[in-house]
Design a protein that fits this description.
Blueprint lengths: L1 H15 L12 H5 L10 E5 L2 E5 L2 H9 L1 H15 L5 E2 L2 H8 L9 E2 L59 E3 L17 E5 L29 E2 L88
Parallel strand pairs: 3-4, 5-6, 6-7
Antiparallel strand pairs: 1-2
Length: 313
């Protein structure tokens, strides 16, 4: 029980960024200097001119120490342009006033751990809204504007997000069960978690980041797991879904052009009619994968060293 408590506490600190009051919201300073946002748990850090800076690993810290001032200046410029805007924390009562309003606007609000179970939120604008740990079980969010929303650890069982605008959203380790993302816009969204047989059919996931980001997971590998999921007619073009688990998933007629499928497990998945032109198939598991009429096999990368025996290929 003690070890479970420690794990939960450390995970909470990682996801909320409250491990320490460091510069740049605990993002890796060197990553920011190289135009990339990488949150850390700040276990690797240093002080410079009275301020604390975090790093993703010791190598990044060593790079920083070679020229701290120049690195900080580059990091400041990138962070100022790309950091998320401030969110205003509101109470349950204040949130309910908005939900009851015909012009419901919860944009740029912090709704962490608030209760929205089975509520109709279709009329609400929720751009850059934080639902960290919020309860959205059975909520109707279909067609809602949730661009840039933050749904880490949210309760999304039976939630209806079909047709919702979730572009640029972050959905990290939420609790899923029969969650509906059919036709949703998840372009450039970041998602990690166990979704099971989720319905994402017809969704736009272009440039989505669902793959395993090893450098950003000090607590261990947590990946996108959607065994038996429905991804028929999904647009995954340019997305990163490396190392994801798609066993028995439906990818019929999906657009997988230039998608990173490195080590993705597609065992028994159905890719009939899918387009994999330019996809990275290196070490992907294709054991029993149905690939009838798949387009662009000859233009994939690493297909010759994929694993398993596919069907119809």
């Amino acid at each position: 029980m003690k070890s479970l408590y420690i794990f939960t506490a450390m995970t909470f600190a990682l996801l909320t960024g409250v491990a320490s009051a460091a510069e740049f919201g605990n993002h890796c300073t060197v990553s920011l200097a190289n135009d990339s946002m990488m949150p850390t748990d700040c276990s690797v850090k240093t002080e410079f001119e009275g301020k604390e800076y975090c790093f993703g690993n010791e190598a990044a810290k060593s790079t920083f120490m070679k020229n701290p001032q120049a690195t900080i200046m580059k990091a400041q410029a990138f962070y100022a342009k790309n950091a998320e805007p401030e969110r205003q924390k509101i109470s349950q009562e204040q949130a309910m006033e908005q939900v009851k309003s015909a012009k419901c606007d919860l944009s740029n609000k912090d709704l962490g751990y608030l209760m929205f179970d089975k509520m109709d939120l279709r009329h609400c604008k929720m751009v850059n809204t934080s639902f960290f740990g919020a309860y959205l079980r059975g909520a109707d969010l279909s067609g809602a504007n949730m661009q840039g929303a933050y749904l880490n650890l949210a309760r999304l069982e039976d939630a209806n997000l079909s047709g919702a605008n979730l572009a640029d959203a972050t959905i990290f380790q939420a609790i899923f069960d029969k969650t509906n993302f059919k036709g949703a816009n998840l372009s450039n969204a970041r998602m990690i978690g166990t979704l099971g047989n989720v319905d994402m059919s017809g969704a736009n996931i272009a440039k989505g980041r669902f793959g395993l980001d090893i450098g950003n997971q000090p607590m261990g590998a947590m990946r996108f797991d959607a065994i038996g999921g429905n991804f028929a007619n999904v647009n995954f073009e340019g997305a990163d879904i490396n190392r994801s688990n798609f066993k028995f998933a439906d990818f019929r007629n999906a657009n997988l052009r230039n998608t990173d499928l490195f080590r993705a497990d597609l065992s028994k998945a159905d890719l009939t009619g899918a387009d994999i032109t330019g996809a990275n198939m290196k070490e992907a598991v294709l054991d029993g994968t149905i690939m009838t009429n798949v387009k662009g096999i000859e233009a994939t990368k690493g297909y010759d060293i994929s694993k398993g025996k596919c069907v119809g290929c």
